[in-house]
Design goal:
Chain A: This is Nitrite reductase (NADH) small subunit. The complex is a heterodimer of chains A (157) and B (863). With 157 residues, chain A is mainly beta. Chain A has one helix and 13 strands. The N terminus and C terminus of chain A are likely disordered. In chain B, α9 crosses α10, α20 crosses α22 and α20 crosses α23. The chains are: A mainly beta (157), B alpha/beta (863).
């Protein structure tokens, strides 16, 4: 995938783990700073080496479980999109954008968006780093997520 | 508005339908209904009485949703007989002396079995075939005779009609040798013609039942030791027989109406008009007791119609009786007979087309209008496969050459029938082809279960199901919904096809599977195909669930080998084979649960479940459990869950076999076996069935001679009782039978298809399964046996292997960058002395500092 334009806001990169700690096509949860608090992020390593991050909170079950979903792919208008399916009620999300591709007949819990927040990820010298200024689907940038693919991880082996 | 009172006398099938229809339609609650039933049980399926002998219990014969009788507007009075109607006072008195008033009265008293006048008809050993008590008594009598004598019990059935043949089949199923004595010239003379009757006789003979026609029984002789010994015919012949079943016909039970002064038909029955009203506007009669359009009709479908009409009229409708559909189909294993419409070609100018193959025992006849186009009726003996599609065509023009419908299958075949929308498909529930189409196109019913639930078609006798299925498939095709068996967008194959492909190709990883058998845009699979392929590989190329790529294919339950619960924590179920556990084991489990602050509960399958474990606690918990001698219970997998057992003969004073030992053996044999859905077994030590084995995918029930095995019992959305697969097996045969049954299911079922629907859809249904499993009709028996032997040999405890492997243990961390930090979102409150997940409101309260939580994510771990 393409390398995205550098986000306008300052990104503080936080190292979370060695790349080797992530099993291929499986997620892991990480705790990263979110302003003054800590937030749970689900980090996934794909079979092509990309690393992507979305929120760990599942908006459909209100449990923090998304890192435990099955990683796969789905054909969206002819494009093979990397996905994760929630282990709870099987909603499918685009791992690059956080967009919910299949609500599986359910509604998010009150106050939650069906789509997921995403975080920028990069791998530096074999270490996975997460950009702690959130981008992607949030109150500000929901309109531009598809074009920018902000969560797509740059990989520098 | 004050509810008016509807009183129904009689608790049979028609009464049931009437109450059901009333509760369905009377949404305003205008009527309160009371049903007076003479029998002590809820209304049951009398049409299916014969299946009582093939193992269906009285409970299974019960009709409809039991909740109907819990409705506050419905009262069922059982075991009390109505004895008098006072039309002036509008009340009915019962044998126990109770009086019930009514605003409207419905007589649904049905009919009784007619016993022809003959000497000896009251001897012990003479039975009628009418109620569950009748057939239970018959069964008991035959069993007692068999116990005290060596030769086969001989039985005769008086009457060669539908009921008589079914009674003969029942005697045969009980192991008695039976002969049918028919007064008329041929069998089923009310429905089929002489030619059909002759073909039928050959078929009946072939299954070992004797037939004598033009045989009038005049006397039953007593045996010197008491009971029936012999019957005597009008021509002087005498036949030895220890049991006599009278199925000579029925007579309406119209004595209540008679005593109440209502008009009675010339041959009995309460005379009613087309709206089912008697000559008293406050009294209706429905079903077999009603004499409608000049006749009493001994079939359930017209009775149902009368019930519906009565309800409609009570609610202000205007419907009227359209005339009876007298089509019948014999329910006797191995003998296919159907008759419908003008079977005797009584319509002026009617033409008959007959095709007969005496060698094969086939006789088929169509009755057509004088232009040889419109179908008027037919008789099918020996091969009634065309019945379901022909019957709805009654009174309609047949497409193409009518004779095409008579030829055996595979000789050109019958043209596809495009049924008109108003053609009746399910006569039991009065469902038309149009209603089924509507269910598919407008109600979104895209599988047989949904269509059945939505329309009720096929939910009574089930004979129309093949037609319902075909209509559904045609409709789906028209909608452009390919009735696709493809697993998902990544595989065009069905699970069964993929299973075979993977097994034959010998591939071992998802990457190989998706490259060889995936679609062009297969990508990396999804949450549907990955677990399915993982399940297939688990039995074709066994390996640890977390080995290599396998780890990425598992649902979270299999991935962490525990059950995901609603708050993201997991529960843990150690194996207790057969439900057996030592006191030391119980203490060990208790200590683990206490030390980790887990909520404990006994599961539905007799195991102990411990809830609230965090992902990072799972290895610690399992280390303790493994040390105490426990292994993984696989409660998380689509795999063998439990083998439930009762106490068995070692302790139980009634048990006839050691059900615990067998359950333990079976559970250890099949532990870890991955399958399309979870599977559960049960073993009961006697027919009291304390293990509820017939609610399991495989149920084993001990007999004095061995084990009976039942298959296809499921809980879930549509609970089913298991059906008898084989009887009196010794243990090795039993085990081989279950081995093959399970693996045949594993190989051929759809993803997430439980055994009950699988049996319905697999080639040949239950008989097909029996042929494969018992008679090795596909020649795969040895292969299945070998596969199961490998499974048993290769078993290793998944948790023990995981604890021994640091690489695998690394996955069990709450956070990859903070392995020792528990998930801060978890929170618990106390309830009944244990913890449960906090609700959203309780969490919010805790955030405001209110003291609701008993524990956050760090439950106290005591050492």
């Amino acid at each position: 995938m393409t390398t995205l334009d550098a986000p306008q806001r300052t990104v503080a990169w936080v190292a979370v783990c060695p790349l080797d700690a992530l099993a291929t096509e499986r997620g892991a949860a990480a705790l990263v700073p979110d302003g003054p608090a800590l937030v749970q992020v689900a980090v996934f390593r794909l079979v092509d080496g990309r690393v992507l991050a979305v929120q760990q909170h599942d908006p459909f079950s209100d449990a923090h479980v998304l890192s435990r979903g099955i990683v796969g792919s789905r054909d969206v208008d002819g494009v093979e999109v990397p996905t994760v399916a929630s282990p709870m009620y099987k909603q499918v999300f685009d791992l690059r954008t956080g967009v919910c591709l299949d609500v599986a007949g359910k509604q998010p819990v009150p106050g939650a968006s069906a789509d997921l927040r995403t975080w920028p990820v990069r791998v530096v010298d074999g270490t996975v780093e997460i950009g702690t200024v959130p981008t992607g689907v949030d109150a500000h940038g929901a309109g531009s997520i598809r074009a920018g693919v902000p969560g797509d991880g740059e990989v520098r082996p | 508005m004050h509810a008016r009172h509807l009183l129904v006398v009689g608790g049979g099938m028609v009464a049931q339908r009437l109450v059901e229809a009333l509760r369905d339609r009377d949404t305003a609650g205008a009527w309160h209904v009371t049903v007076l039933a003479e029998e002590p049980r809820r209304p049951y399926d009398r049409v299916a009485l014969t299946s009582f002998f093939s193992g269906r219990s009285p409970e299974e014969l019960a009709l409809g949703d039991p909740a109907l009788w819990d409705d506050p507007l419905v009262t069922l009075v059982r075991g009390d007989k109505a004895v008098a109607v006072d039309r002036a006072a509008r009340s009915v008195t019962t044998a126990s002396g109770r009086t019930f008033g009514y605003d409207h009265l419905v007589l649904a008293t049905g009919s009784y079995a007619w016993v022809p006048p003959m000497e000896g008809a009251d001897l012990p050993g003479v039975f009628v075939y009418r109620t569950l008590d009748d057939v239970a008594a018959l069964r008991g009598y035959v069993h007692d005779l068999q116990a005290e004598r060596s030769g086969p019990v001989r039985g005769v059935v008086l009457g060669g009609g539908l009921l008589g043949l079914e009674a003969a089949g029942a005697l045969d199923a009980l192991g008695a040798r039976s002969t049918v004595l028919q007064v008329d010239t041929h069998l089923m003379s009310a429905q089929v013609d002489l030619g059909g009757g002759e073909a039928l006789r050959r078929l009946i003979n072939r299954i070992g039942i004797g037939v004598r026609t033009q045989a009038m029984t005049t006397r039953v002789h007593e045996h010197r030791r008491g009971g029936v010994g012999r019957v005597e015919l009008a021509d002087g012949t005498r036949m030895d027989a220890e049991v006599v079943v009278v199925a000579a016909g029925v007579r309406p039970r119209d004595e209540l109406a008679r005593d109440a002064g209502l008009t009675i038909g010339p041959r009995g029955g309460v005379v009613v008009d087309d709206t089912c009203l008697t000559d008293d506007p406050d009294v209706s009669a429905v079903g077999e007791v009603a004499c409608i359009q000049g006749a009493c009709i001994g079939l359930v479908a017209p009775g149902y119609t009368m019930a519906e009409i009565t309800v409609d009229r009570l609610l202000g409708g205007v419907s009227a009786f359209p005339g009876a559909d007298t089509a019948t189909k014999l329910k006797l294993a191995g003998v296919d007979v159907a008759s419908f419409g003008d079977a005797f070609a009584r319509t002026p100018g009617a033409l008959e087309i007959v095709w007969a193959d005496p060698v094969a025992g086939v006789y088929k006849k169509l009755v057509l209008s004088d232009d040889a186009r419109t179908l008027l009726g037919g008789v099918l003996v020996g091969d009634a496969s065309a019945y379901a599609s022909l019957r709805p065509m009654l009174g309609r023009e047949l497409p193409g050459d009518p004779s095409a419908f008579l030829l055996p299958e595979g000789t050109g075949g019958a043209p596809d029938l495009e049924l008109p929308d108003d053609a009746g498909v399910c006569s039991c529930n009065n469902v038309s082809a149009g209603q089924i189409r509507h269910a598919v196109t407008d109600e979104g019913c895209h599988d047989l279960g949904a269509v059945k639930a939505c329309t009720r078609a096929g939910t009574s006798c089930g004979s129309c199901l093949p037609l319902v299925k075909k209509l559904m498939a045609t409709e789906l095709e028209k909608l452009g919904v390919t009735v696709s068996t493809a697993l998902c967008e990544h595989f065009a194959l069905s699970r069964a096809q993929l299973y075979d492909a993977v097994r034959v190709a010998g591939v071992r990883t998802f990457t190989e599977v998706v490259e060889r058998f995936g679609t062009r845009a297969a990508g990396r699979g999804c949450d549907i195909c990955k677990p399915a392929v993982a399940s297939i590989l688990a039995t074709t190329a066994p390996a640890h669930v977390l080995d290599g790529e396998r780890a990425a294919m598992q649902d979270t339950n299999d991935h962490v080998m525990a059950n995901l619960q609603k708050d993201g924590s997991y529960s843990v179920v150690p194996r207790m084979a057969g439900g057996e556990v030592t006191p030391a084991g119980l203490i060990a489990i208790g200590e683990v649960a206490r030390d980790f602050g887990l909520y404990t509960k006994i599961t539905g399958g007799q195991r102990i479940d411990m809830f609230g474990a965090r992902i990072d606690q799972l290895p610690l918990i399992w280390q303790r459990l493994v040390d105490a001698g426990f292994e993984s219970g696989h409660a998380y997998g689509k795999s063998l869950r439990t083998v439930k057992s009762c106490v068995g003969s070692t302790w139980c004073r009634f048990g006839v076999q050691d059900s615990v030992a067998l359950a333990v053996m079976l559970e250890l044999r099949y532990r870890g076996l991955r399958s399309p859905h979870k599977i559960k077994l049960g073993v009961s030590g006697c027919a009291r069935e304390c293990a509820e084995a017939r609610g399991k995918d495989v149920g084993v029930i001990a007999t004095d001679k061995g084990w009976n095995v039942y298959v296809g019992g499921n809980g879930g959305f549509t609970p089913r009782h298991a059906k008898l697969l084989a009887e009196d097996l010794d243990t090795p045969t039993l085990v081989r039978t279950i081995d093959r049954f399970l693996l045949y299911y594993v190989r051929t079922a759809d993803r997430l298809q439980r055994t009950a629907p699988w049996i319905e859809e697999v080639e040949g249904g239950l008989d097909g399964v029996r042929a494969v499993v018992m008679d090795d009709s596909l020649g795969i028996g040895a292969d299945l046996d070998a596969q199961m032997a490998r499974h048993v040999e290769d078993y290793e405890d998944e948790w023990r292997a995981t604890l021994d492997d640091p690489e695998k243990l690394r996955r069990f961390a709450s956070f990859v960058n903070a392995p020792d930090t528990p998930d801060p979102s978890l929170a618990y409150v106390a309830e009944r002395g244990q913890v449960r997940p906090a609700t959203a409101a309780e969490r919010a309260a805790a955030e405001r500092g209110e003291p609701v939580l008993v524990a956050g994510s760090t439950l106290e771990v005591r050492s």
